[in-house]
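User: Structure tokens for this complex, please. No commentary.
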Amino acid sequence: MGQIELKQVTKSFGDVQVIPPLDLTIKDGEFTVFVGPSGCGKSTLLRLIAGLEDITTGHIEIDGQDATDVVPARRGLAMVFQSYALYPHMTVRKNIAFPLKMAKMDQAEIDRRVDAAAQVLNLADYIDRRPGQLSGGQRQRVAIGRAIVREPAAFLFDEPLSNLDAALRVGMRMEISELHKKLATTMIYVTHDQVEAMTMADKIVVLQAGVIEQVGSPLELYRTPRNTFVAGFIGSPKMNLITGEEAAKHDAHTIGIRPEHIDVVESEGTWQGTVGVAEHLGSDTFFHIHNTGLADTLTVRAIGDISLTHGDTIHLSPRADEIHRFDAAGLRIG
Amino acid sequence: MARSVTTQRKTINTTIAWIIGLLIFFPILWTILTSFKTEAQAINDPPLFLFFDWTTENYATVMERSNYARFLWNSIVIAGGSTLLGIIIAVPAAWSMAFVPSKRTKDILLWMLSTKMLPAVGVLYPIYLLCIRLGVLDNRVALVIILMLINLPIIVWMLYTYFREIPGEILEAARMDGATLKEEILYVLTPMAIPGIASTLLLNFILAWNEAFWTLNLTAAQAAPLTAFIASYSSPEGLFYAKLSAASTMAIAPILILGWFSQKQLVRGLTFGAVK
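Assistant:
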């Protein structure tokens, strides 16, 4: 079991309130991702749940038990840190066994669990090495191994992949997702990378300045962003946000249209502009378009096999049913 | 790009380094040489460098006249005891200052260091009186405590500096893994800080070993360490340079040997954290 509930939780450092009163429920077995720009309070929120920071006011409940004043070790949570935080003077085996040793488990059971974890994470070959002799990806696996042997109520991940190179990150993303499917344990994952959020999460919590902007499944957030912040943050490349006359035509202060929802047409499109930068990825082409009279730059995603380049005139046709409308306060209309 | 150093430049630098090194070492060398001379040769003018009749009679006399082993044992107990006691007290102190600092931590550190700026003689009178009242004059335990207190600021400072180099996340990981504060310090922090702790131990052992002011003033016969052993050869009957040198050599030999074998550790500890 691993249901986590935050009730009117706040956090202040001195006079600065970084988390205004916040309520959140994370259901048992759910993969929840906290996402937001740097400094939005997502890591602080995770540390509050872990107990590494004391909350200023409010309550945290884990499985219905008040855990507000419980020390980190007694909360039954395991954490994987951004820097891996392995014990450099211990071998992989000892690193993974450490939480079990602290729990005063008997040696045979420790060995059994460590071997099982090493098996799952492909660490058997490195079990007697020290962290200094491992690559980034292997270290990350050890950190995850140390977390899973405890069989915790929930896993907390604090940007665990940000120190890895791009290729490895994709691989580890997959591994963590598979681990979640296998263990079906609650996981809370902090990242600033919306791609990680979209690909891994059952539920995404978008944060800005300590405030929850929206909570929902990846596709809910993609399809119906509650405000312009979420609209701009979720989706890659970013949604185009257009104000002024064009928005007024739709009875809105701002309209948003995703790059993949604008079609490039031969001529006589709704909009037209000049190609600034054309990024040819092979599978797709991203156009950054100027002189549309709508916004400084309009981003459009087109098919890979398209010959338009810098300086060419481009005709565009937005899909009417994919236009998002927002009011002056940035909130979604309809 | 690496800075290129010409061979000529290297030779000059090496020569200068050797000259400075020998200058610093010279008094010790001279003491050792003198210890092998007769009293007459020791005060010979011009001084004799290597060509004299080498003799070990001074050592024999010194061994005969004083109980070297007792002084040595006292030195070991006092230097070792005060260093160990200091470490036991300083590890938790440095831990709290490094990992849970408060607004006043910096002030406390500076205040502690400022106590080292006070001339020791300034507190000699009260401490001497205290020792008399408590009946612990010429007592090893009292000296262990006094030297520990005198070196404590340095021990805390050094450990604080080393602990600051240890990423807080690793200690947080230990906390998440269920370690109590004691286990966190014992199993995680201390092993990681071993190089730092070792050099702190060494340096403070050397400082305590060489400490003369308190050991000379607060001891007589029972608790006197090697510093008192040396001093006993500069007596009112006149200076016996050769014997004094022999005594000095015997007093510094253990610490010199210890320093020689641990120099790698010492240098590594003192420059710990300078380069990541």
